[in-house]
Write the structure tokens for this entry.
Amino acid sequence: MKMDTIKIFYQSKVFILPSREEGFGLAILEALTCDLNVVVWDLKVFRTVYNKLVFKSKCYDINDFSNKIIKIINSKEYKNKISNNKRQKQLKNLKEKNSLNVQVNKIDDFIIKEYRI
């Protein structure tokens, strides 16, 4: 992640990803790493990968999506961002599970298995 991106993330209150299709959503993990609250559509991939670490809005309901953003920006409760221990632990586990080393090993294992190297 570029230093400019990190600087912008730390100056922000919320990260918004209105993507209709995602594989994993690496930008979400980057935003969470910078202690940002994240708002996304309630897509299966986000429920599976990020579960309660992100705020999910009803799919393609712009009013619900914008209301979640406004609630986060205006609420003192969310201004502490990811502060409770449970969320910190979930984020740490997610980062470890999806680290570059883990992903490279998965690819290596797949290649070895598929091509019997």
